[in-house]
Write a structure and sequence with these properties.
Length: about 800
Amino acid sequence: MKFASALSTVALLFVSKSIAMTWEEADAKAREWCADLTNEEKITLTTGRENMQGICVGSIDPIERKGFKGLCLQDGPAGVRFAEGSATSWQAAINTASTFDRDLYYKVGAAQGNEFYQRGINAALSPAMNIQRAPASGRIWESYGEDPFLAGQVGIQVIKGIQSQGVIATAKHFVGNDQENNRGASSSNIPEQALWEVYIDPFYRAINDGSVDSVMSSYNAINGTYSVQNKRLLTDVLKGKMGFQGFVMSDWWSIYDVEKSFGAGMDMDMPGGKYWGPDFVGDSFWGEHIQECIDKGIFSQERLDDAALRIVRSLIKAGQLEDYPEVNLTVDTLTKENIALNRKVAADSTVLLKNDNKVLPINKKVKKIAIIGKDAMPATFCTDMQCANGTLPLGWGSGTTDFKYVIDPLSAITKRAKKDKIKVVSYGEDDAKGGAAAAKDADLAIVFVQADSGEEYITVEGNKGDRLDLDLWHGGNELVDAVASVNKNTIVVIHAPGPVNVPFIDKVKGIVFAGFPGQETGNAIADVLFGDVNPSGHLPYTWAPREDYPTDVKYDDALPGGGEEKTQYDYDEGLFVGYRWFDKKEIEPTFAFGYGLSYTTFEFSDIVADMTEDGLYVTLTVKNTGDVAGAAVPMIFLSFPESVKDYPVRLFKGFDKIMLEAGQSEKTTILIDNHDLSYYDVDVKDFVKPEDGEYTVYAGSNARDLPLKVTVSAAVGDENEPNDSEDEEIPDVSGNDEDVKEVESDEEAGEASVEEEQKNDSADVEDEISADEEPKKDVASADTIKKVRKCIVKKN
């Protein structure tokens, strides 16, 4: 059998809903539209009115005189919330990031955007772009991992995809909402350089490269001042220095006043009520109190004019003031194309962590498989997924969806095994003794285990959003130990929001990390286990024991939101988040940032680096040295010149994804633009690109497997000098040499198996996306050089 291409594409059977409009064009039209607005109408635009008691989670009242229908705002990153099963329940954002595939990032955004558009939803409350600084943090599955460059790159394409459908994307949560405990009564105390380079940088990319229409502020304070009251960040930085032209909305019920919040630069109060509940519909901290403050001179008329203008400007840029669909959250968009795309991304995001003795993919020599654990069983549906019973497709909270169905692993594996005449037995509990008994006589035992996390307003099994620890839930470690003790061919499949403890790592043959794959989870896992898809997912974070990370969550007693007393989160690690910390302290992680195995092997060679006015071009050759087709992800890391002091050893700065047939080689060129060649100088108060010294460029498959190295002068035009990579002490933990899987070649089997498996739930379709809809890879060509944005460096 030939592998189904890891980069085979899924058609998008819809096109851009509006001709792209520049901010300048939108501004001119918005000023004309707003010219005759009364203050009462401007206040209507800024103040949520139904307090989440209406159809949408957030809404703005109509202005009938202007023919304005009002606004509907709706969660979220995994698809349309409260759609009663009529919309796709997508994979978690962290899974999307794990594909390291810009084409898929865009297609996910466009497909989701289309589902919001068809329902008349004006603003999708997505993407989430916070940083995974502590692995136990509850909402890490809603964002894109630990690295700001990666978070920015995913965000750019998801935003472009959403907005291609005429829907407003919302980059959130600005900024520092990186843990759940007392999020509404906490202060993220972030050093200035880290604030810019780590936490603001994804939003910088969302604004400058994604042209995002709206930004949502965070619950927490930053350095003592709540985000919604932080004039420096909202007005001086976001709207001033970063040039954001859209509007800033609050997170839900994060506003506790009018003077400080509206005066600081907040443009929209969501959902409008002072607190949750029907008693506060129409009872807002804003509303008529805005006019009272203007009358008292607390803030100017211009502040209200600007807020209204920003909202209308975004609506006009999105093409929403004419012919926008009426709000109907239950329009059926659960199409075979969306199902196929979810299944593909779920499979491509699956990370193969261990594969000793080529135990995977499952071959026809296997006659009996035992499926063990409750996580392999049908999911239990509960409000906002506030239960962990059965397989876990998503975490809990506002970032989840209403599922129409979830394909459970047992059903999918059983169905797929029949094709190869493999018998499947199962034990659907987490009891160690029962699991061992079921696995004892099987040729292969697959144990499904889980851990869960989510948003602060829900507590699940004692976990109030943030996880209490990194252990598997429901006795998962004991279950794996028991099965492995009786079956030498044990594979563990993990559903979890992020890293978990794996004390059994040396006792099992294989470990597959599925994350939170959404509704097609079972089919996607079966695709990978049986080799219908060659795994190509990579970790967007570092995986290690909890005590090895530089920081952690806290479990303080609950404090009143918006109060003066706050839980203090000191970001003392500064720039050294994730792999940067492990490099600095020379700690060997369990699995490195970017780690992910394949059923084939890859070789990287012939690295060349060229510094130009547009940035640094890195060219290398990637070869598939194995026997089957697969997708390689070459990653570029950069060391800055020695003049940049107290800086990370290496920074992730570029990647590509390349599908290669067995034996095939391909050259790729990756651009690192001038912004990513710069660091934030706290004295200059801006990003500065070093003019002297040398950058060292590393290339490889993950943060600890970088076999290629070359130095290049920071000065434009100087020749680069290749280095002997053997001198660099970076351990090779790729494991690829021991993880090649030989399979039979069959030209049509890959596509046929997908079509057979999915039937009405999925479809193999050709990629018909037009050139102007496709996302641009971070790959240089003669046509793109002149389009690269140049970094403007300010000096004293």
